[in-house]
Every structure is written in C-alpha cells, then in structure tokens.
Amino acid sequence: MLVSYKWLSEYLDLSKVTPKELADTMSVTGIEVEGIEVPEEGLKKIVVGEVKECIPHPDSDHLSICQVDIGEEELSQIVCGAPNVKAGIKVIVALPGSRITGNQKIKKGKMRGEVSNGMICSLQELGYSDNVIPKAYAEGIFYMPQEAVNGDDVFSYLDMDDSIIELSITPNRADALSMRGVAYEAGAIYRQTPNFKAVDLQADESENAEDYISVDVQDKADAPAYQIRIIKNVKIQESPLWLQTRLMNEGIRPINNVVDVTNYILLLFGQPLHAFDYDKLGSKNILVRRGKDNEEMVTLDGETRKLSPENIVITNGEIPVALAGVMGGADSEITEETTTVALESALFNSLSIRKTSKQFNLRSESSSRFEKGINKGTVSDAGEAAAAMIAELSGGTVVSGKSTGSELVVTPVEVSVSVDRANKYLGTELAEEEVAEIFTALGFDFTVTAGLFTVSVPSRRWDITIEADLIEEIARIYGYDKLPSTLPKGETVAGSLTDTQRFVRNLKGMLEGYGISEAISYALTTEEKARQFSMKESKATKLNWPMSEERSVLRMNLISGLLDDVNYNVARKNSNVALYEVGHVFYQENDPLKDLPYEENHLALVLTGDRLEKDWQTKAEPVDFYTIKGILDNLFVTTGYQQTVTYEATQDMKDMHPGRTAYIKLNDVIVGFVGQIHPLTAKEYDIPQAYVAELNLHGLLNSEKEAFVFEAVSKFPEVNRDIALLVKETVTNRELAECIWEHAGRFLKDVHLFDVYQGDNIESGMKSMAYSLTFANSEATLVEEEVNGAMKKIEKALVEKLGAEVR
Question: Where is the TRNA-binding domain (predicted)?
C-alpha cells in the first residue's frame, strides 16, 4: 500500500510530524514501512513552459523547433521530437544544467544545426513508470494545465514534492489498504480523530435508480451486498491534474474522469467499485449469478475468458458483462461516448474471487481487497461518495436512490477484556484510565464494569474478534518498546532424548556413515507431486492462501522433494548424489468429521550415479537396486528389525519401475518401499536413473523388535555346507531361504546366497542359485550324521515344495 503524506495530511494534523517520524512510529506500532520515496529527489531545474510557436525542423521529418515561454523576458528555443508537441500547450521543460531521471544532466546544444536550450520532457523522463502514465501521453510529452504559471517548478503541480510511504500490509490488517484505514491508524498513534469531509450528494428526486435498472442476486452468499447507482448526462474527459497525479503516485494509471473516481474511492475507502456504460448493458436488469460451463465473455483486456461455476459473474439478465470483483467486460466499458453510468458497489465472496483471479491470472487492486476483506459498513457510503464525485467532475446528475439486490446489516462486534488480564499478558501495570485512553484513541466505543472493558469494535476493524486481539491493540498503541523485559524464572532440569529422538539420531548417524548427506526439503509442494509415491489413500491438504502454485499442498511423501534436489545437483554437473531426509508427511482422511490432517515421520533415501568411481585399478560401478536395499538391510540389522522385515515385489506403484520395486513389510504390515524410479517419472524430473526408498518411522517405532542378546563365542567349531539348486526363475530367494530355515533344525545359524546364474547350460526359464549354510552347536561338537540329516531334510523340502533340483 502506497500512502501519500500530503493526502494523509488532509485528514490529520501532521504539521509537527515528518514523513520519516511517521514511518518510524507506524513500524513500531505494528504496520511495517518498507520505505519512503520523494518523487522530486534527484531532479532539479525543471519548470513549466508554454509553447508559443512550433514549426517543423528543416532537416528532419520528426523534429520540431519550439519557442517556449519559461517565465523569462525572452522566449527559449528548444528542439523537440515528441509527436504531440504543438503551439498553445503548457509543457514540462528541463532547463540547461538541469537533471532528469537517472541523474542525466541536460545541456545546451544543437540538434541538426538548430540550437536547443534544454528539453521538453515526458513523464518518463521525470521517473514515472510506463504503466502509470495516461495512455494519451505514453508516446509523447505531458500537457500541463493552462493555469500553471510559466517558470514555476513543476514539482508542486505534479505532487512530486510529496512523500510516498510504502506500507507492508499483513493479511490481518487489510483495513490499512485504504487511506481512511491508515488515517485511523495514524490518528490512534498521535491521539487525533481523522476529519473526513461529509459527502454532499445532490440527487435528482424526479427519478429513481430503480426506474433505470433492477438488480437480483441469485445467491446472497455470493454477493451479501450489491447495489447500483445511476449518474446521467455525464461528459467523459480527462480528470483534473490533482486527481491524475494522486493516482499516479499511488501506482495507478489515470483513464478518464469516471474510472479515475472509482480508483480514487478504492484507495480512499478500500471499497472496489465498477462503472458500467448503462446504454451498453443491453438490458434494464442486472443478475448476479455463477458462471456456466463453457460460457464465454470478453474482459477489458480484450481476452476471451471461458467461465465455470466457480466464477461469480454480473450479467444483464442473460449474458455476462463483468467478472465480479476481478475485471469488467469490454462490451460495457466507459468510453468517450458514455452519457449514463451505472455504478456498482458490492461485497463478494472472497473465496470465489480468489479462485477466479487465480484461474485467469488476473490480480488487481480490487480482487486483492475482496480476497483480504473490506469494510462491510461502508459499501453504501463508498458508492454514494463516488456518485457525488463523478457528478461533480463530469457535469452529470445523480438519479435519486439506488437499486439494491442484496444488503448487509452490519452490527458492531462486542469483545471483552479485563485490565488484570491485559497486564498479566503484557507484564505491565496499566491503570483502567490508561486502557480507556487507548481504546478512545483507537476510536472504539466501550463500557467499563469493575475493570472489565466491553468494547464495541467498529466494522472497519474486522480483524478484532477475540480477547487476544484487544490485548494486541493495547500493546501496539501503548508501545511495544515500553513493555517490560524480564529474564525467565523457574528451575532447570536435566534434559534427555526421547526414544523417538534417539532412534532418529542413530539412523542419521548410520546413513551419514554410508556417505549419504542429509537434505531438508519444503513441506509444501504441488498437488501432483504430493500424490506421487504415496503409501496410502489420502485427501490432499491444501492451503487457503498459498505463496504460489508450487507451494500450495502439504506433501504426502518425501521422495518428490529429494528428486527436486537431485535435479538441482545434476543440472550443476554433480552426477553422483546420495541424499536422505527425515521429515513429516501429512495425510487427511476422507471423512467430513475429520477435516484436520495427521502427521507421520518418514525417512527417505535417493541414490543416483556411481557407487564406485573409476580410478587406475577400479572400474566405475553404478548404484543399483541392491545398493539401496543393502543399506536398508544394514539399518534393520543395526536397529534390531532384521528378523521381522521382509520384502515383497510389487507393480502397484505407478511412479516406480514395475520390475524393480518392492514393498517393505514389518510383520506383514507395509511400512515402506524401495526400488527404481520409473523411467517416465525420472524424465519428468529431468534426472538420470535413480533408486529410492521411503520408510514410515512411526510404523517401525510402534512395532516390537528383536532384543539384542549377547552370546559368548562358542568353543565348538562351525560346519559349512554348500547347496546348489536349479529352480524356476519365478521362485524368489525369500521363498528358498524360508524353506531352508524351516526344515534345517535348531543348529542352522546362517544362510548366505553366494551365486545366481542364468545362461549357457541352463534351461530357459530356469536359474541356478547356490547357498552356503552354517551349522553350529554351542554345547557340543556337531557330528557328521547331524549335519547330513539336516541337509537331507532341507533338500527334500526344497524339491517337494518349490520344485527345486539339487545339483
């Protein structure tokens, strides 16, 4: 929000307060000031001039030789290249030795052989941005008013001697998105009551607005307040200079005397308005409704918009003429031919306005105010002030009354707070009289009973609804810098890690020992990425006011964030990446009674590139499925879950490779997955082949794990036997190992797969798998008969249950 110090001074006595002091004080009381700009700073010797004579340059087809009266005895000759320069106009003149924007110095010189004593300036050359300059002067010089005195500095005429204070408005203080709101805020700080001029609306009582137009609102929730006023016999022309410069200083381009008034009232009241050309509506009816599927309209920017039921539209009873709260339609805009204006003043559903502006990428001063909230108590007042001002500037007449489709009755919100409660929160010792003085400064009506303040909050402060809000107001106006500071009190106790913290810390230590680096990703992402790699069905948890589309949904996995990190590294020629992250994911049940998300703590890994780098004696070895699975196996062994964790091949995860992905199960409950990213998914992220895993740490912590038991080293020798099997390629290592363990007896201590072969001399569809079995008895030396007996049982079970052939 840009605030004009001059404009603010019309409502408050700031004669003893400098713009810098005002900015500092407002920052201290809760509304941060980004900076102060004085438009005339850096400019000098720029005056009003009058073009007395203008003739074409003899040696140029676009230059003109002008004789300009700059308030001196003799005319000054200036060569000008502007297409709109002519005799009889008053212009901006930069004298020799002057400085224009960019610290550019203007000197006396010659142009194509003709002397030029300075320069006739455009607004751009005074530092105005192209997007705020009136279109009539966008490609040429600016015309000053005829009453401007030749030779005077232009700065006071253009309000360039003003101080423009830029406020950073937080969402809860949308009341400060208006000059009236800022005036009340500054008034509370300096203990003044803003003085706003009363609106003098002279209406034609012989007619009524309802004779011109009728208004109907289909759903009052979409437009709780909607009214139309009629101004007839208007003459469309440029606004007076004071209005144009005020808008330009606020960052708004002047258009004409009607549209400029709607923008002026927007800045003054914070109330968006829209002006229709009444004769172009094509109807005497206004219907506010939702858009229809595939319905179209052309907006003021000339774009054809395809509407949907999410959009609130203003129609002439049949076809849309405006996108409510966002942008008007091209067919009903104010032009030079307009003679009758239908002025809309309304309140629209903020969520719908937000969705519409986002859908069409149309962010405007109006839409942002409807989204954040407006003063519901001044909807009608703003419309009345605008109608009176349009009539004054255009020579028109306001038709009496207004045509109303919906009307909102605003009742003040009552909130209570006690002095003791406020002092307890703030650490102060404020007396009842001091609190009363603060509420009076804020312009809040109140009653006091035994130290309990019951405050009637005006509609302009819709952010105040609970006791804590009033305490914040007391603290702001009293002064945050005056609040006492104390050291914390109490006893200190020895801290310790919880089981969860200790478990996570151990996991991190192990992973970093494997050379994997920790990454921290955003918890907010897009809905598409949030749904990838998800281990359960869940609703997406969406933010109402996201910073951007890329940060609008809470994540339901950690892997998508790690893949973004991989993309960042690979794009910078770092191709060997090993990252892990421990963080929360957010799930939401499809139950209307449970609308809040719940969190789970997850661990995710991603590996890509080479596991071993090429050197003088070693070939490069890329990471593969077994690299990441081996890391997980070691984690499970170290944490005591190796006996209860199993892997099960799956093709159910569409973002993972169907032949290289497995669920991780803990006691037959899925707690994670491991595998290769699907090639199409890797292409979407623009990364090479990558392997990932994600684990639900809650699932691990909530399950029993095998106790760690210390055993004495046996004094009896172990016996090793190897067995080679020919099995169908569909038989898994897990099935073979489980069968061996089940039938080996109590002396089997370890089963190790040391060879897998498919190829020459092996039948198609078959594979050879070789295992090393270790037997031991801690109480006696194993004899040959015991081991042979165990081996026979194993071989028999493998043949009968899995169709294995012992080689």
Answer: 40-155
3-state DSSP of 537-565:
CCCCCECCCCCCHHHCEECCCCHHHHHHH
Residue 395 — left, alpha, or beta (φ > 0 → left; ψ -120 to 50 → alpha)? left
What does residue 540 show for φ and ψ, rounded to 5 degrees? Answer: -80, 135
Where would I find the beta strands (DSSP E) of 164-284? 164-168, 203-208, 214-217, 225-232, 273-277
Tell me: do 233 and 303 sit in the same domain: yes
In a domain, 148, yes or no: no
Element (H, E) at 121: strand 119-121
In this predicted structure, what is the pLDDT of residue 38? 94
3-state SS class at 414: strand
User: Structure pTM?
Assistant: 0.70
| 33 shares a domain with 49 | no
Q: Is 463 assigned a ligand-binding role in the annotation?
A: yes
How many C-beta atoms lie closer than 10 Å to residue 49's C-beta? 30
| Same domain membership, residue 207 and residue 90 | no
Tens of pLDDT along 259-318?
999 999 999 999 999 999 999 998 999 999 999 998 999 999 889 999 999 999 999 999
Q: If we measure between CA atoms, which residue out of 556, 557, 581, 576 comes closest to residue 566?
A: 576
Give 705's pLDDT tier (boundaries 50, 70, 90).
Answer: low
| 161 is an annotated ligand-binding site residue | no
| Whether 213 and 319 share a structural domain | yes
Q: How far is CA 304 from CA 295, 307, 363, in A?
A: 10, 10, 17
Q: Are residues 525 and 466 in the same domain?
A: no
For the domain that residue 113 is a member of, what is the CATH number?
Answer: 2.40.50.140
Domain presence at residue 780: yes
Question: Do residues 402 and 261 both lie within one domain?
Answer: yes
The domain that contains 467 carries what CATH number?
3.30.56.10
How do 214-217 and 285-290 pair as beta strands?
parallel
* Residue 3, pLDDT score: 94
Instruction: Evaluate whether 119 touches 96 at the Cβ level (below 8 Å).
Output: no
Domain boundary among 356, 382, 406: 406
On whether the CB atoms of residues 1 and 165 are closer than 8 A, the answer is no
180 class by beta-carbon count within 10 Å (0-12 exposed, 13-18 middle, 19+ buried) = buried
- Buried residues in 606-615 as b, exposed as e (16+ CB within 10 A): bbbbebeeee
CB 291 within 8 A of CB 319: no
142: left (phi over 0), alpha (psi -120 to 50) or beta: beta
Same domain, 618 and 585: yes
- Report the number of distinct structural domains present in the chain: 6
Residue 590 pLDDT more than 80? no
Residue type present at position 236: I
Phi, psi of 22 (to 5 degrees): -60, -45
Q: CB–CB of 340/231 below 8 Å?
A: yes
φ and ψ at residue 449, rounded to 5 degrees: -135, 110
**What is the C-alpha separation between 47 and 433, in angstroms, rounded?**
54
Closest Cα to residue 428, out of 486, 364, 385, 483?
483
In tens, the pLDDT along 75-92 reads: 999 999 999 999 999 999
Q: Is 469 marked as binding a ligand?
A: yes
Helices and strands, counts by H and E, the chain: 20, 42
Q: How far apart are CA 620 and CA 611, in angstroms?
A: 8
Instruction: From 589, 519, 517, 506, select the one nearest 559 (Cα to Cα).
Output: 519
- Provide the sign of the torsion angle of the four alpha carbons 86, 89, 95, 99, taken in this order: negative
Instruction: Please report, as a single letter, which amino acid is at residue 62.
Output: H
- Smallest CA-to-CA distance from 173 within 158, 164, 184 is with 184
Would you say 473 is a known binding-site residue? yes
Name the residue range of residue 776's domain. 719-806
Q: Are residues 422 and 546 in the same domain?
A: no
Backbone angles phi, psi at 351, to 5 degrees: -65, -40
Beta pairing partners, 90: 50, 144
**Residue 463 within any structural domain of the chain:** yes
Find the mean pLDDT for residues 422-427.
93
